[in-house]
Each structure stands twice: as structure tokens, then as C-alpha cells.
Amino acid sequence: MNARPPALLLRQWAVYTALLPLAATVLLAYIGTVGWSVWISFTGSRTLPTGSFVGLAQYVRLFDTERWIISLHNVVIFGVLFIAACLVIGFLLAAFIDQKVAGEGALRTIFLYPYAMSFVATGLVWQWMLNPELGLQSTMRGLGWEGFTFDWIVSQDKAIYAIVIAAVWQASGLVMALMLAGLRGIDDSLWKAARIDGIPRWRVYLSIVLPMLWPAIATAFVLLAVGVVKVYDVVVAMTQGGPGTASEVPAKFIMDHLFTRANIGLASAASTVLLLTVLALLAPYLYARSRAARREAAR
């Protein structure tokens, strides 16, 4: 075997050297800090980190905390409604635009634009719109609908649903873009054959198109699910977790205990629970992708 030319070896070592800062950042700033947080969750740390190992005591205390249980309950409600609504609305928008409607480019931009906004801006806009004294309720009553009531944002039972509305408004455009890319990859001959056979359009979407869109649906689901786990900005901007703890979510629980209540041990335990949740969501997706890649390589 011939030895590699010195110039080629030098070029390869230059590439590896250029990657060292990135590798150090990943190892120290990401993996290192994650490992440190997990370790802190097994200690009795309060205001400052300590090395006093307490085992699973922080996790026991975490799941004995009513506020944490409420936050889990809220994030489950938020997650189910948010993901389902985004997938349905995103698909309907994509199917609408796929009909080659006039002004398609403008419509794509309009539907996708909310996703370019930060969740803080979205939360502030919807906080004003849903404010009973300033927003939709006040406007409708000013138009003569005196009995109109829409005070979800200040209701103990409905505040979390107000947050769902704002989040769905922002994220549906992303799902639309993913679904539209999948729809544009479907051969026009499929639609021609369906028309010749007299198959209703809705049946074609349900039985043929949706299964073909499975990769786009899976990608959208994973992105939305990760967004559910880390939802924070829109909650703080709209309700601050209130009224009371009616719209409390895990990420806000963590931030409050980390910075306000100075309990980094409990906050680290909650962070570790969220980390495991994200890994549980990503693992099946990554496994399915690896299996698909292996099948393609074996052909």
C-alpha cells in the first residue's frame, strides 16, 4: 500500500485541528454540563452546589411536590392538544396550498411567518388579544355583543387552553411547510389514476397520501414533542404560570427553583427528568431512521 503524500496528510491534520474547538465545545459545554447537572441532582445542593450525595432523595421530593405534579398534568394537556391541532391544521393548510391556488407564494409566507416570531412576542400578542378588558372580549362587547365572554386567560380551568391556542397559531406553519414538501414529492400520476377510477379525493388522502407522508409526519411530531417538553417562553409571556399554578409547566418550575428559590438540586432533578423525556421521544425516531438507512444500504 502506498503511503499518503505529505500534503494530503497535512491537509487532513489541518481539518482535524480546525474541528478541535467545536469538539471541545460539545464535550465541555454540552455533554459536560449535562453530566454535571445529573450529578447535582443526586446531591443535597441548595443555593450552591455541594458534593453531599443523597441518592434519589431529590427525585422523591420532586414527585412529592404538588406544583411539579400540576406542571406535568398541564404539559400533558398542552402536548396532546398542541401536537394534534398542529398536525391537523398543518396538513389541511398544506393540502389547500397544494391545489395550486392563486398567490401560493404569499400564502406560504403568511402561514409560515408566525413561526419566525419568538414565543415571547407570540405570548405578548395573544396576552393582549385574550385579555378580557382589552382584547377580543372587550371588542365584541363594544360591537354590541354584551353577553360575549372569552376570559380563558384568567380562568383557573381554561388558562392552559389559551396557551395552546397561541402555540398552535405559531407552530402550524412549520408543519404546513413539512407536509407541503411531502405532498410535492407525490407523483401527479397518482391523482390522475384516482380520478380515472372515480376514487373520492378524501379517500385518496386518507388511504394513500397520508401513509406516503409518514416521514414528514414523524419529523413534525418529533419537533413538536420536543417543543412541548421545553415550553416556557409563551407561558411566561402570557400568564406567568397563573392564575396561581393553573398554567405551570415543568420548564418554568425548573427556572423558578434555579433562579428564584435557589434550589439547584431540585431544579437539576427536574431537568434530568425532562432530559430523559426528550431522549425517550427521540430514541424511537432515531432507531426507525437507522433501520431505514440499513435497509436502503442492503438493497
What does this molecule look like?
Its main location: membrane. It is a multi-pass membrane protein. This protein has helices at residues 6-40, 57-63, 66-97, 104-116, 119-130, 136-142, 159-184, 188-197, 201-212, 214-229, 233-238, 250-260, 264-298. The protein is flat and about 75 Å long. It has 13 helices and no strands. By secondary structure, it is mainly α. α3 packs parallel to α7 (159-184), α3 (66-97) packs antiparallel against α10 and α10 packs antiparallel against α13 (264-298). It has a single domain, classed as MetI-like (MetI-like fold, Orthogonal Bundle), CATH 1.10.3720.10.
Which characteristics define this entry?
MetI-like fold; mainly alpha; 13 helices; 299 residues
Helices and strands, in order, run as HHHHHHHHHHHHH
Indicate how many domains the architecture comprises. Answer: 1
Question: Which consecutive residue ranges, at least 5 long each, have pLDDT under 50?
Answer: none
Structural class: mainly alpha
Mean pLDDT: 88
Number of helices: 13
Termini distance?
Answer: 31 Å
Query: Which CATH class applies here?
Result: Mainly Alpha
Strand residues, percent: under 5%
Instruction: Give helix % range.
Output: over 70%
CATH superfamily: MetI-like
Fill in the CATH topology: MetI-like fold
Cα shape: flat
Strand count: 0
Sheet with the most strands? none
> Which CATH architecture would you pick?
Orthogonal Bundle
| Radius of gyration, in angstroms, nearest whole number | 25 Å
Looking at how many chains there are and whether they match, the oligomeric state comes to single chain
